[in-house]
Amino acid sequence: MSFYSKNFDFIVILYRFYMINFSILISSSEVSGPGGLFDIDATLPLVAIQFLLLMVILNVILYNPLLTIIEERKEYILTNLSKASEILAEANKLTTQYEQELDSVRKEAQLEITNSQKIHKEILEVELNISQKYIDNLLDTITKDLLTKKDIALNSLEEIVKLLCGNIENRLAI
Q: Do the domain assignments include residue 167?
């Protein structure tokens, strides 16, 4: 059993005791005269004393511990709220810091991508120029070779044509 349930049981027992005594007092008082139950006699101060005594007992046993617990809880809640506010402020600060770092890293990455694309484009242009020069040289070589072979073929054809023409003239001259 906890402290408060013991106190509550004590308060209930005390309340029953005083209510029984109060009911006995009321039932034992004789109603005589015009006021009856509400006559001002010795019962009124007794009821007032019982009420004040009950208030003091309740204040000591129930209200003061309850108020201290409520105050402790209030301090606990305020402490936790202040800690939560500090943590939230720190989290916001870290969030903005990380967002700034992320933005700078993104910018650096974009710059690296752009530089890389530029370098690859230059390398491609250089390789294309080298390939174009190689193809041009190859075409020039093939063209010269073909022209040489053409000249050789024409010269040999010209000699063959002259021989054939000479043979035809000889045969026609016969």
A: no
Q: Please give the residue range of the domain that contains residue 98.
A: 3-29+39-134
pLDDT above 60: residue 77: yes
Q: Is 170 a member of any domain?
A: no
Asked if residue 19 belongs to a domain, the reply is yes
**Cα dihedral 66, 72, 78, 79 in deg (nearest 10):** -160
Residue 148 lies in a domain: no
The DSSP H or E segment spanning 144 is helix 64-173
- pLDDT for position 96: 96
Q: Helix, strand or coil for residue 5?
A: helix
CA 119, CA 113: separation in Å to the nearest integer? 10
Say whether pTM exceeds 0.85. no
How many separate domains does the chain show? 1
Q: What is the mean pLDDT of residues 145-158?
A: 90
Mean pLDDT of 90-112: 96
